[in-house]
Design goal:
The protein is α+β, with helices and mostly antiparallel strands and 320 residues long. It has 2 domains: 2-237, 2-Layer Sandwich (BirA Bifunctional Protein, domain 2), CATH 3.30.930.10; 244-318, CO dehydrogenase flavoprotein, C-terminal domain (Enolase-like, domain 1). It is built from 11 helices and 16 strands. The chain has helices at 11-24, 47-50, 53-58, 96-109, 153-159, 192-206, 217-231, 234-237, 280-287, 294-303, 312-318; strands at 2-5, 29-33, 38-41, 63-65, 73-75, 79-87, 114-116, 122-124, 127-130, 132-137, 140-148, 167-169, 211-213, 244-252, 255-264, 267-275. The strands form 4 sheets. It has a 6-stranded mixed β-sheet with strand order 10-11-6-2-1-13, with helices on both faces. Strand 14 and strand 15 form a beta hairpin. The longest helix is centred in the middle third of the chain and has 15 residues, at 192-206. The radius of gyration is 22 Å and the shape is elongated.
Length: 320
């Protein structure tokens, strides 16, 4: 087992690193990282349906899609992420409890009464402190999870505050749970730096033949290439969302407009607009084929003078 501690807090880099270690290497790894504030969505989720878009954009929070399934999670400086990238026998690679057991054992060793939940999460007193997900690639598996140590739970709640009925789709929807921080359950006070160091040491001792490992220049170059080609791109992080539809009513003063969109691969495939604004047919045609993205739609409305300038922000907000 090679123990890797990430040199970066950039979420796109660390999520890309997991894919790189899984698909382009052959050894077993335990990989640990802390990300700057970010939202990480599951591979099969509708990104817009999982996040508080207005709050996220206002606070410049990046949204990054990972290759594993499961629900959306919040990352910040108080959240430690762990990944086990392992070789195994085909057909026997999915085992949440087994792969998470070193982390669970460590928490219990610290005197925290943590247990594994029915949704593959870790709980303390009914509060979720860790979410876990997996992805199988050939005869290798990526098992990764969060550890809410001293995370800002109020920002977590704001970032993931959504209306589950807003979008109609077959995407995997997150199950919202009451969360807690590990720090609040510790018998002895410590910071996340010490917690991280102790966990790495515990994992090191849990696997025979463990070695401390660092990324080579070649590793970093390939990971950064993967960031450029995939994890920094809208078409992966948002556009990869499963097909969905959206029906909304937009009110601009006394004006009432009904909008219905059908979106596939991030593009508006069908747009129907009814209401008290002239040239709605032309507006619907102009929006068809456009990325379902706030900035793209705002620029289109402005550049082509499709609605009054003072209506643009209201109109864009109504389409998400």
């Amino acid at each position: 087992m090679l123990i890797l501690d990430s040199p970066s807090r950039v979420p796109q880099f660390n999520i890309a690193a997991e894919e790189y270690l899984l698909k382009e290497t052959r050894q077993d790894y335990a990989f640990f990282y802390i990300n700057d504030p970010s939202i990480i969505v599951g591979k099969h989720q509708n990104a817009w349906a999982e996040i508080n878009l207005q709050w996220t954009r206002k606070n410049n929070i990046p949204v990054v899609r990972r290759i594993s399934g499961g629900g959306t999670v919040w990352h910040d400086e108080g959240n430690l992420n762990f990944s086990f990238i392992l070789n195994g026998e085909e057909g026997k690679l999915v085992n949440f409890r087994e792969y998470a057991s070193p982390v669970l054992d460590f928490l219990v060793k610290l005197g925290i009464p943590a247990e594994f939940g029915q949704r593959n999460e870790m709980l303390v007193g009914g509060l979720k402190i860790s979410g876990n997900a997996e992805h199988v690639y050939r005869r290798r598996v990526l098992h990764h999870g969060t550890l809410l140590f001293s995370s800002d739970l109020s920002r977590l709640s704001q970032a993931l505050e959504t209306d589950p009925e807003q979008y109609k789709d077959k995407a995997v929807q997150s199950v919202r749970s009451k969360t807690g921080n590990i720090k609040d359950f510790l018998k002895e006070d410590m910071g996340i730096v010490e917690f991280r160091k102790l966990l790495l040491g515990h994992v090191f001792d849990s696997y025979k033949g463990s070695e401390i490992h660092t990324f080579s220049d070649s590793d970093i170059s390939r990971i950064e290439e993967l960031v450029r080609e995939k994890y920094s791109l809208w078409k992966w992080n948002v556009g990869y969302s499963p097909r969905y539809s959206l029906k909304r009513e937009i009110r601009i003063g006394d004006i009432r407009v009904l909008v219905e969109l059908k979106v596939e691969k991030g593009q508006i495939k069908d747009c129907r607009i009814e209401g008290d604004i002239s040239d709605l047919k032309d507006l619907a045609i102009q929006l068809t084929g456009v990325a379902h993205d706030p900035d793209t739609i705002r620029d289109l409305l402005w550049d082509r003078n499709l609605v009054k300038p003072e209506w643009i922000d209201i109109f864009v907000g109504g389409l998400f």
